[in-house]
């Protein structure tokens, strides 16, 4: 027995009591203490069997210290390009915002070229290609508010299709796996060091996202790689002004944390680690379909497609309208371009098969057409005069023509000498016109006829029944039986306008529709020789001995730096080329002096008889 015992306070029956009601006494009072052996011993904590291993593991900061102190024993290697993502050659829409796309593309490029093969020129091509991909993704973004946030144009959990160097790659930026504060002192909150260690136990690659720093980290069997498009100097310190995009390699997670903390612009702030995965990779011309999702059920098709309102009308709604905040300064100004795009797209895809996503696509393409037709620095309301005869709708080049004011009248007039909206629509479709732009009171709608059905595309906010609404509305497309039902649907939303409101119906026709090749394919290769349309400048010869120019001469892998050696077409040694050039010059000089001598003799002989 120990030298001390427990006594229960205020109890004389000897029954065991909770630990908080007991007094700690010495063994000298053993005679007065009772029930010592009956005190319940603490039970072992029961851990459920289905808990994942490591769930209850502590995240104490004593495991890996997380400080910004630079340790001299870190071995690293670095390969830099010629510029970074803040270069002035990039436009204002993308400059300084392409870090995420460049980082994800860097990991994808590692599937084409091992990091040991990377060169300065390849990093430059990577930065340029990342900017191109950013602009492509930006044009597809529905809600531009995400662009200002941490996820930018690549959404978490959404698969992306990247065509790189003739290969189609399905890339997934997963939901964040680790969230914490870089130098947290709270054992229950991940700091950067502990977060990196926990992250790479389960993942091979991921992007680190903070308020300032955005880069990609991946590992192989030998070391870890870090690609930072924002700019680093030769000692791997962040330098946005004069640094270059850089690929760094280090030995372990501790070294990764040291590079990020001591050599980067990273204070005690929130960070996110999200896995990056390349799910599929195939040839660009392969028949494998990366974009096809699981087949929709009949219920899902019914929800996304047309819904029958009555025997004369069916409707399909988009997920937004022309005043959505994703259109920024252009909102509510693009009704005319959207109407033109809707009628043109009906020639590409039958309107009776449209879904909600189809209408979203038409709205985005119409917004793009509006931007193309306006002055880059001035947002104005465009008219028919601003619409060019040749437009581009996605991958199609379209030649169009608009006949002004084929029908005009007053919306709800009762005068027999004037056309109202009902008689005006009947008059318009009774002629050879099939597509028209209905313009009234600074509003624009698209009306057309296709395969004995009539369609009305309304880009303004509407309810699921196609009625006017102030908030929460969505654009819609109505499938109607005849012009009379089209006029009835129109009157339900615009009956508040004065009866004498002037309206015009301009005839619209698509003259030519041709699919064009993608104007810009993303190419990122080792040299300019493989870039389309470039001239052959020379060969890039890998030079393993130049790696000491970067890093600390203790790299895990030596850097591969390009050495430009200009070779002749016949690949002869430089000495032979020089000898051949000298012989050619000697022949030219001999010919010139011989000609001069003959001319001098011709002038001298007549003078001397």
TrEMBL record:
PANTHER family: AT05186P-RELATED (PTHR40552), FI09606P-RELATED (PTHR40552:SF6). This is SFRICE_014849. It comes from the Eukaryota. Residues 1-32 are annotated as: Disordered.
């Amino acid at each position: 027995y120990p030298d001390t015992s427990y006594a229960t306070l205020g109890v004389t029956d000897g029954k065991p009591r909770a630990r908080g009601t007991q007094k700690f006494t010495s063994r000298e009072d053993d005679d007065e203490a009772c029930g010592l052996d009956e005190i319940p011993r603490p039970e072992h904590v029961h851990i459920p069997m289905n808990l994942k291993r490591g769930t209850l593991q502590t995240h104490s900061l004593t495991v890996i210290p997380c400080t910004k102190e630079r340790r001299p024993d870190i071995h690293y290697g670095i390969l830099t390009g010629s510029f970074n993502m803040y270069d002035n050659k990039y436009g204002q829409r993308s400059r300084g915002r392409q870090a995420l796309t460049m980082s994800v593309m860097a990991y994808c490029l590692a599937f084409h070229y091992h990091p040991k093969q990377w060169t300065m020129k390849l990093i430059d091509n990577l930065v340029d290609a990342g900017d191109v991909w950013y602009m492509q993704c930006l044009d597809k973004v529905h809600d531009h508010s995400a662009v200002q946030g941490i996820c930018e144009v690549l959404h978490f959990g959404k698969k992306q299709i990247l065509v790189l160097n003739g290969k189609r790659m399905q890339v997934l930026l997963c939901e964040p796996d680790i969230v914490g504060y870089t130098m947290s002192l709270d054992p229950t909150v991940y700091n950067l060091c502990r977060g990196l260690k926990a992250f790479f136990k389960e993942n091979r690659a991921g992007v680190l996202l903070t308020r300032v720093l955005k880069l990609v980290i991946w590992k192989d069997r030998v070391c870890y790689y870090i690609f930072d498009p924002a700019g680093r100097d030769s000692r791997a310190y962040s330098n946005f002004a004069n640094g270059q995009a850089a690929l760094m390699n280090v030995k372990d997670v501790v070294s990764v944390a040291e590079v990020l903390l001591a050599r980067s612009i990273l204070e005690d702030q929130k960070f996110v680690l999200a896995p990056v995965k390349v799910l599929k990779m195939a040839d660009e011309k392969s028949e494998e379909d990366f974009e096809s999702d699981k087949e929709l059920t009949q219920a899902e098709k019914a929800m996304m497609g047309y819904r029958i309102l009555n025997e004369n009308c069916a409707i399909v709604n988009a997920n937004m309208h022309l005043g959505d905040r994703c259109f920024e300064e252009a909102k509510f100004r693009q009704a005319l371009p959207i109407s033109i795009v809707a009628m043109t797209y009906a020639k590409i895809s039958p309107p009776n098969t449209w879904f909600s996503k189809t209408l979203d696509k038409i709205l985005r393409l119409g917004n793009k057409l509006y931007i193309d037709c306006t002055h880059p620095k001035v947002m104005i309301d465009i008219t028919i005069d601003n619409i060019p005869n040749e437009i581009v709708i996605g991958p199609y080049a379209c030649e169009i023509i608009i006949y002004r004011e084929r029908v005009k009248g007053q919306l709800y007039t009762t005068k027999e000498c004037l056309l109202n909206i009902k008689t005006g629509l009947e008059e318009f479709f009774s002629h050879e016109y099939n597509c028209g732009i209905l313009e009234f009171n600074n509003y624009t709608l698209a009306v057309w006829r296709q395969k004995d059905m009539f369609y009305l595309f309304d880009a303004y906010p509407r309810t699921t029944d196609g009625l006017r609404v102030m908030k929460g509305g969505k654009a819609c497309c109505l499938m109607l039986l005849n012009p009379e039902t089209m006029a009835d649907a129109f009157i339900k939303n615009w009956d508040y306008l004065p009866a004498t409101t002037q309206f015009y119906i301009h005839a619209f026709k698509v003259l030519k529709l041709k699919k064009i090749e993608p104007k810009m394919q993303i190419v990122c290769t080792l040299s300019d020789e493989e870039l389309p349309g470039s001239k052959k400048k020379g060969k890039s010869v890998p030079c393993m001995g130049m790696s000491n120019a970067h890093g600390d001469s203790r790299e895990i892998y030596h850097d591969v730096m390009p050495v430009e050696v200009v070779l002749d077409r016949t690949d002869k040694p430089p000495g032979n080329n020089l000898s051949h050039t000298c012989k050619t010059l000697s022949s030219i000089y001999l010919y010139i002096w011989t000609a001069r001598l003959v001319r001098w003799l011709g002038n001298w002989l007549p003078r001397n008889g």
